[in-house]
Specification:
The chain is an alpha/beta fold. It folds into two domains: 2-89, 60s Ribosomal Protein L30, Chain: A (2-Layer Sandwich), CATH 3.30.1330; 103-250, SPOUT methyltransferase, trefoil knot domain (Alpha/beta knot, 3-Layer(aba) Sandwich), CATH 3.40.1280. The chain has helices spanning 11-18, 29-37, 70-76, 113-125, 143-149, 152-155, 164-173, 212-215, 234-250, and strands at residues 2-5, 24-27, 42-48, 62-68, 85-89, 103-108, 130-134, 158-161, 177-181, 189-190, 199-203, 220-221. The protein has a seven-stranded parallel β-sheet, sandwiched between helices. A five-stranded mixed β-sheet has the order 1-4-3-5-2. α4 links the parallel β6 and β7. α4 (113-125) runs parallel beside α9 (234-250). The longest helix has 17 residues, at 234-250. It starts with a strand and ends with a helix.
């Protein structure tokens, strides 16, 4: 369906903006074309009027193909310089399959969209089966997160949990192992080589990490690092851990 929208007060546009927090906005020509090449279902594809012909072959991939002017695109876009196109997706969350998946990266209460996005990209690069996002951190629909994660958001199954313990309880019920991470050495510290699938690999909030009571219940991985540093960035830590697991599988 081709729809032309010229007014910033158009009812369809206002409804889209009202539902923005529930949707995923992929902005910019390169990212939008990457999405379209994956044959991903697109709810809305917004294209500037002067670029309409450039996306003529993609009309059938979108439930709604919006032709808009610069003012409308500027209202929808979160970028300083509005893009020539924007794809709106929904329903990307997929249930973690404890019978099929082997390693699930868990990111609890992460506050920085860039950290969350970097972890998603590394999960896609290093073959992690799924990602779980828990707690009151960044939502996967956050525009800054989507810009960082890019198409990794489509390549790696992910599920959101309100509480970390809900996920841990579900995993333990299936006899999964749980490995936490800590910036400080603990009595139950293990190395990456001791990680045994199927398992959860859990990283905590940038400032406070994981709850101390939780750290006393499960083994914790600590990356060896210089004593001059208190801890590594959580996105960096996640990527190092996933790379090490990938390297071990390859060898």
């Amino acid at each position: 369906m081709i729809i032309e929208i010229r007014s910033r007060t158009n009812p369809r546009l206002m409804e889209l903006m009202r539902r923005r927090s529930q949707l995923y906005f992929f902005e910019g020509e390169k990212l939008v074309r990457d999405v379209l090449q994956r044959r991903q279902s697109v709810q809305k594809l917004l294209v500037l009027d002067e670029c309409r012909s450039d996306f003529a072959q993609s009309i059938d991939q979108a439930e709604e193909f919006w032709v808009v002017n610069a003012a409308v695109m500027a209202k929808v876009s979160g970028l300083r310089s509005p893009p020539v196109c924007l794809a709106v997706l929904e329903g990307l969350e997929r249930t973690i399959d404890f019978d099929r998946h082997r390693i699930v990266l868990v990111l609890d209460a992460i506050q920085d969209p860039a950290n969350l996005g970097s972890a998603f990209r590394c999960a896609a690069a290093f073959g992690i089966d799924a990602v779980a996002v828990s707690g009151s951190g960044v939502a996967p629909s956050n525009p800054k997160f989507v810009r960082t994660a890019q198409t990794a958001l489509l390549d790696v199954p992910f599920q959101r949990f309100d509480h970390l313990m809900d996920l841990i309880t579900a995993a333990r019920r299936r006899e999964w192992h749980v490995f936490l991470t800590s910036s400080q050495p603990l009595k139950n510290t293990v190395t990456v080589d001791e990680v045994t699938p199927p398992c959860l690999l859990v990283l905590g909030n940038e400032g406070r990490g994981l709850d101390r009571k939780l750290l006393s219940q499960f083994p914790a991985i600590r990356l060896a690092q210089s004593e001059r540093l208190d801890s590594l960035n959580v996105g960096v830590s996640a990527c190092i851990l996933m790379y090490e697991l990938h390297r071990r599988r390859q060898s």
